[in-house]
């Protein structure tokens, strides 16, 4: 019977995947776009499709213009740091500033090649990338976000619908240049997951889409990696309200401040005062069968194969060496690292001097928090470590430009100084002419791949000497922490108690015989 139910489950998953990819899932829209005459034409470009869309959806493009998805920019209200994809630096592909034509394949617009992009143009908004239901819409990797020439734009435009895990995943599953490589808790295994991988997105269960939690108002999607809220206290809050700030996509919105309902679970609710839900309920990351990158060493780039092209080495389907970018390592089913986090994240910007931390790394982003600030909880994070180029004279991270129109000639004469000079010129940033390499690390909070309750982190995984929380300071954890003085006095009290009991026993025996003799 169990085998039969398993077969039925997997057949169901295959059917769901088929309907998602082919666009034959039951329609929930009140409009059949195949009947619109405005869409029954031959479209030759993405902007032509958008021009047709906004004739009916008159406010949509203007709403998009106000979102982080469009601007790639965000002003942190706490520390006033202007961040966003176009401003920060990371230790993956470093920054889009030197290669907009490629990086903006994940922008919800058309034509962002350089600083001259028109952010006010409504026709530059890409409606299809979020609303495609066919699975046939593909953006070019080197054409500033325009769709590939092979895409039948008329067919896609006539089959638009609500956003889905697939449409969001086109960019978010593949952030950093590959499937699951960047975040560790998002990859295409979440397109049609089972309950064991994610209880909320379970394709034959709750079947949450991304927008179930990340609700939007006027195309502005809830949630932020730049200024997340670490300690949610507003209890049940299922529906987003127009008065809300960015960050209301959180567990307590549905589960409340006392998520463990049974009487015998009250101790777990006490834990929730200091521990994020994700810490217990996302025990491991990258467990959907897709490996995530853990390290990246840019300093080893530049090796050529026998034909004179950048060498590439694949192991188990993963790119472990790329002549353009260096050595990369991967991991699957990995235990996260844990930190105190209060929601404040400080990012390294390209125009800022680097600071080497005590651990020997430049922290490309810093998650602030402490056990005493009243705002922090213990959070799981993926920490990605790398070696990347920097300018030792100006003490700043730099932007390499690792491509050329004549690839063979470019790589035959590859030189890091020339590569960085080209990248910094493209980004409009100063460069001293000297290149060295420095160790960096960057962190991302883990929020997805929520396991069933039975697979939550067990007590002894934290309450032990070398458990998950071995590096968390400022809090007493039974089973992990011990005071020599406390242990000494504890054992002394126990010994004195034992001596007292023994003496009392002998006293009773002695008095008993004494009374008999007298």
Summarize the structure.
The protein has 518 residues and is an alpha+beta fold.
The low-confidence runs, each spanning 5 or more residues with pLDDT under 50, are: 1-27
Number of strands: 15
Helix fraction by DSSP (H/I, runs of at least 4): 25-40%
Report the biggest beta sheet as strand number plus sense, adding barrel if it closes: 9 strands, mixed
List keywords for this structure.
518 residues, alpha+beta, nine-stranded mixed β-sheet, two-stranded antiparallel sheet, 15 helices, disordered N terminus
Helix-strand blueprint:
Blueprint lengths: L1 H21 L23 H11 L3 H5 L3 H4 L2 E2 L6 E2 L16 H4 L24 H4 L21 H5 L7 H8 L37 H4 L2 E2 L2 E2 L30 H4 L10 H6 L5 H5 L10 E6 L14 E4 L2 E5 L3 E6 L5 E5 L3 E3 L14 E2 L1 E3 L9 E15 L4 E2 L9 H6 L3 H12 L8 E10 L38 H34 L1
Parallel strand pairs: 5-13, 11-15
Antiparallel strand pairs: 1-2, 3-4, 5-8, 6-7, 7-8, 9-13, 10-12, 13-14, 13-15
Written account of the structure:
The protein has a domain at 271-491. It is 26% helix and 13% strand. The protein has 15 helices and 15 strands. A hairpin with a 3-residue loop joins β7 and β8. The longest helix has 34 residues, at 484-517. The termini are far apart.
């Amino acid at each position: 019977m169990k085998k039969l139910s398993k077969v039925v489950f997997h057949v169901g998953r295959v059917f769901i995947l088929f309907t998602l990819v082919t666009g034959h899932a039951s329609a929930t829209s009140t409009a059949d776009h195949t009947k619109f005459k405005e869409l029954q034409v031959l479209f030759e470009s993405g902007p032509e499709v958008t021009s047709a869309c906004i004739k009916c959806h008159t406010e949509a493009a203007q709403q998009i213009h106000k979102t982080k998805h469009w601007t790639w920019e965000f002003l942190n209200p706490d520390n006033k740091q202007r961040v966003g994809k176009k401003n920060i630096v990371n230790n993956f592909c470093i920054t889009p500033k030197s290669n907009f034509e490629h990086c903006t394949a994940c922008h919800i617009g058309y034509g962002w090649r350089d600083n001259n992009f028109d952010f006010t143009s409504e026709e530059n908004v890409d409606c299809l990338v979020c609303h495609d239901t066919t699975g046939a819409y593909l953006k070019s990797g080197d054409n500033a976000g325009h769709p590939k020439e092979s895409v039948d734009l008329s067919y896609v435009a006539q089959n638009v619908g609500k956003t889905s895990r697939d449409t969001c995943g086109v960019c978010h599953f593949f952030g950093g240049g590959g499937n699951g490589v960047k975040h560790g808790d998002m990859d295409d295994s979440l397109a049609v997951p089972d309950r064991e991988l994610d209880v909320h997105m379970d394709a034959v269960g709750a079947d949450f889409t991304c927008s179930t939690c990340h609700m939007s108002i006027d195309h502005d999607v809830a949630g932020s990696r730049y200024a997340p809220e670490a300690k949610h206290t507003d209890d049940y809050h299922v529906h987003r309200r127009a008065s809300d700030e960015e960050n209301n996509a959180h567990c307590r919105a549905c589960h409340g401040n006392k998520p463990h309902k049974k009487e015998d679970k009250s101790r777990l609710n006490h834990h929730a005062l200091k521990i994020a839900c994700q810490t217990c309920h996302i025990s491991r990351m990258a467990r959907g069968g897709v490996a995530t990158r853990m390290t990246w060493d840019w300093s080893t780039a530049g090796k050529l194969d026998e034909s004179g092209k950048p060498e590439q080495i694949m192991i188990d389907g993963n790119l472990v060496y790329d002549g353009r970018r260096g050595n990369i390592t991967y991991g699957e089913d990995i235990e996260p690292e844990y930190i105190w986090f209060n929601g404040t994240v400080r990012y390294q910007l390209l125009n800022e001097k680097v600071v080497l931390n005590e651990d020997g790394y430049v922290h490309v982003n810093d998650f602030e928090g402490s056990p005493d600030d009243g705002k922090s909880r213990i959070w799981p994070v993926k920490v990605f470590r790398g070696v990347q180029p920097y300018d030792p004279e100006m003490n700043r991270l730099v932007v390499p430009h690792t491509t050329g129109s004549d690839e063979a000639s470019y790589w035959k004469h590859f030189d890091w100084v020339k590569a960085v000079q080209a990248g910094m010129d493209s980004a409009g940033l100063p460069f001293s002419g000297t290149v060295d390499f420095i160790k960096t690390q960057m962190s991302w909070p883990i929020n997805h791949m929520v396991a069933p309750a039975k697979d939550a982190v067990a007590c002894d995984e934290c309450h032990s000497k070398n458990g998950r929380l071995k590096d968390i300071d400022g809090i007493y954890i039974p089973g992990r922490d011990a005071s020599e003085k406390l242990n000494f006095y504890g054992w002394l009290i126990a010994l004195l108690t034992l001596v007292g009991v023994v003496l009392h026993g002998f006293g009773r025996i002695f008095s008993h015989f004494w009374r008999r003799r007298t």
